[in-house]
Design brief:
By secondary structure, this protein is mostly helical. The protein has 8 helices and no strands.
Length: 179
């Protein structure tokens, strides 16, 4: 089975979303406060599951390799990439299930649940990889709880407030991409 070549529009939008995600992570001044997960989720809304995952993987790989604090260990890098790329398909499923057409309260609630699950998955995966790396899995997982809760809380706020109107806009552009 052959797949059609991606359009220049898809590539352009994916590149713009990677740039937006990286701008957000490099502009970070508050630890564990990031917009990348929302950007990747919106990439899935706009471009579909595969492109959304690609935006997440490329963005996180670039950030992990070019981290301002220094490069991340390969095991942690892989866990970060895997943890982040999950947000793309989640955004695509959000649209596939028609949540972008629901009232704002419903969209916000579903987005909040997505924020909790995606961020929790990312933090659990990266904390586990860090624990394996240092031979202290239990201590790392327990010690990471306060940071994970803060990360989950900030992403919940971002998804519920910014995500609620943005998914509608990105879903409209998605329909234009398929024309």
């Amino acid at each position: 089975i052959t797949r059609p070549m991606p359009s220049a529009r898809h590539l352009s939008y994916a590149a713009l979303m990677v740039a937006a995600g990286l701008t957000g992570v490099y502009a970070e001044t508050i630890p564990n406060f990031e917009v990348l997960t929302l950007v990747v989720f919106l990439s899935g809304v706009l471009l579909g599951a595969g492109w959304g995952a690609t935006v997440g993987g490329v963005s996180m790989l670039a950030y992990s390799l070019l981290n301002p604090y220094g490069p991340v260990h390969p095991l942690v890098t892989v866990s970060q990439v895997v943890g982040e790329l999950a947000a793309g398909p989640a955004g695509a499923w959000f649209v596939a299930l028609g949540f972008e057409r629901r009232p704002a309260v419903v969209r916000g609630a579903v987005l909040a649940v997505n924020a909790v699950l995606l961020t929790g998955f990312f933090d659990a995966l990266t904390n586990f990889a860090t624990g394996v790396l240092f031979g202290q899995i239990r201590m790392t997982m327990v010690g990471g709880i306060p940071f994970a809760l803060w990360h989950i809380g900030t992403n919940l706020a971002l998804f519920a407030t910014l995500g609620t109107p943005l998914v509608v806009v990105f879903a409209r552009y998605r329909s234009r991409l398929s024309q």
